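User: Hey, my collaborator sent me this sequence without any context and asked if I could get a structure. I don't really work with proteins. Can you help?
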Amino acid sequence: MKTVEIKVEQGILRGEVTESKLIFKGVPYAKPPIGNLRFSSPQAPDRWLGVRDALEYSKICPQPKAANPFYRKEFYNYEQYPYPEMSEDCLYLNIWAPNRKSEHGYPVAIWLHGGAFDHGYGNEVPFDGEAFVQNDVILVTINYRVGVFGFFAHPQLKEEDPAHCVSNYGILDQVFAIRWIRKNIEAFGGDPDNITLFGQSAGAISVQTLISSPTTRGMIAKAIIQSGAGVDNPIFKHKNVEEAYETGEEIMKLVGAKNIQALRQIPAQKLVDILPKLSKHDNRLLFGPVVDGFVLEDTLDELAKRGDVQNIPYIIGANGNDFGLGMDEPMRKSKYYQSMIDFANLRNEYHGKPTYLYLFNRKLPSDDAGAFHSAELWYMFGTLSRCWREMEVRDYKISDEMVSAWTNFMKSAEPGKGWKPYTEENSFIRMFL
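Assistant: No problem. I've predicted the 3D structure and written it out in structure-token form, which is a compact way to encode the shape of the chain:
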């Protein structure tokens, strides 16, 4: 393996270099959230002396393994790709960058993984930067805190946090990562003023949260929202602070902790193991962004309806059988797809920059799961060869089209090849079939 050294704010990193790309894995963007930093806003990482290796992925944030057998087979082939070790020391990112100079700096794409806000990590099997680098885009993937560690809420936390933050630590991790990237990405050849934020499922909700939050104003140039957001989306409804407090109190009782300091002493695995015992509200996600007055001043729906989101170009879309493994009601599905159209209509109503819509409706080969939730990941990352399915020529063609559209948008804010913005007069939806 050939290596290269790059200086960042905290010190010198050693990463892998090939003829075409630079790869830096396990780069710390925040201090480990352990001990008294559990249930705290992220802190700046410590500086280091000498050269720090960035040659291997970090451990992932504490979480349960994927429970659904379909998704375990699809994305978590433990025999071929061993499940990573877990640790609360997990706030790291990974960078793939072209190994050639760019006069104005390469566009930067920051990927936020899905996983219902209780699992997922930045180096899952489908995620890879090779196809992005080939198209002159830098890819960054990140870990952020999930589950209890990322979204626990309790009144005692408000008293000790300078920003009076009571939850949303996973979202604040994402904000912190974006800030680190903006400060340091020029060292990798990137343009800090040309950042596209993109994510899928819980990652899509994260993207819509960040483009609606005062914490990221002026930091994001473009955004792609895949299968998980919109306006009046029936799949995701925010908890308010009081509801989040209820879940927090339930967690405290389940583990027998009388205060926050006691909860910080509970072993991480015990906090992971209680997830199945927690109560859900109205079939909503157990964890997720909380309207706390700091990260979010109102719900995503209300912020979008009054135009209080960043005025940047967007791609928003879904899969033909999104949530088909657990959601059969036709009306609910139609509301889900309509929520994305409503987002585009609102951006037009406020004379916003273009919004592009898509539908991924390729029924994947080798079984009858159709265009299931998350299926597009293999295609838009160009990693079909890692999937167990017997892919066809058609699949590789769709993958090429998606990689091209995504990276074109990241470079120029236009996906190209006849994909027109969605307007009332021109209700164009790009189909990937």
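In plain terms: The longest helix spans residues 330-349. You can pass these tokens on to your collaborator as they are.
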